[in-house]
Amino acid sequence: MKVNLSQAPIIDAHSHGFRAENLVSASPEGFLDRITVMGMCFGSATGVDPALAGAVSAMTDHTLMAMLTRRRLAEYLDCSPAELFQARHAALEADPQAYVAKLMHDANLSALFVDDGYPLPKVDQLEMQKLVGITIHRVARIEPMIEVARQQTHSAADLEEAFRTELETAAQDPRCVAFKSIIAYRTGLDIGTPDREEVNASYQRWQAAGWREGRDISKPLRDHLLNVTFEIAQKYERPIHIHSGAGDTDVVLSHARPTNLGPLLTRFASQPTVLIHSGFPWLSEAVYLASLYPLAYLELSLYLPWGMLDMDRVLTQVIGAVPTNKILYGSDEASEPEILWISAKEACSALERVLSSAVERDFMTTPEAEQIGQAILARNVLRLHGLD
User: Which band of pLDDT confidence, cut at 50, 70 and 90, is reported for residue 56?
Assistant: First the structure.
């Protein structure tokens, strides 16, 4: 019997902010460029050459994510693929709130967990909530807090004190359900336990370097501040989301593998920690960690939706090895709301295929499979963040 998740609510555990005015003002013809991994990261990375924008655009029509979205969105808007850019832009110009909210409803999306650290300046999440027409939960990224604290202070000790205040303030915001770190983009995931002397020396090196990042400069200080974050998260019973695996070209790729997180997860074994991206592309390492550490959770974005043809294999491996109540659906939308829409639809279909196969092979019953699918799509993330 085929598993049916068509009516299951979906909650995206990993997304980013956007503004109605930016959706309307962005180039209509660049829409598909902006939803590819390359195009999205081209807009977020700091070290890219703007002269390569044309090369990025030239690859869009050869990227499965763009090919599929062009066809599916044209069907949704009742236009031909050739008319898509104009039809989409007309709908946005007419009423961006109606257009975006209908997308969310069509995909059964009922809530978004939104990382407030990208884009900057921060998107007003209450305004975004009006735009999307569904609930938004704040995930407070620590790196902008570190920057605010750094600009207000002149020593490692003072920076730490100011940073703790930032964390405490965020934790007391009723909309803030988790903290997040992208330390993989700064100094890597091999988080140590530097002593006070090492932290002070790191601050001095960082200051002398004009605040230029580097493992040889700011790593001990960054490591210490992440350890502080874990302490505050435990105090306020907030999960921590931590980027694991690849990202845009700014990531410290040689130190971004999820196995680097082993010592941190051991030190803070009682702290719920979500491995954002499940270590993409090092899935087996993230699966191992989540199968071994009781409070290590996996969030599946990048594999979903950009993995496309590989989604079934990814879900089969994760569901087969990790307790299914520790698997979270997410998209990592960071440019256009249609990513939220297409990702939710494709992930739901992939889950139906994988779970139906598990039922056919007598690994589970149909009711068990549907409960698992509903949990991955929404219930797990609610329970983890105390929202159920």
Answer: confident
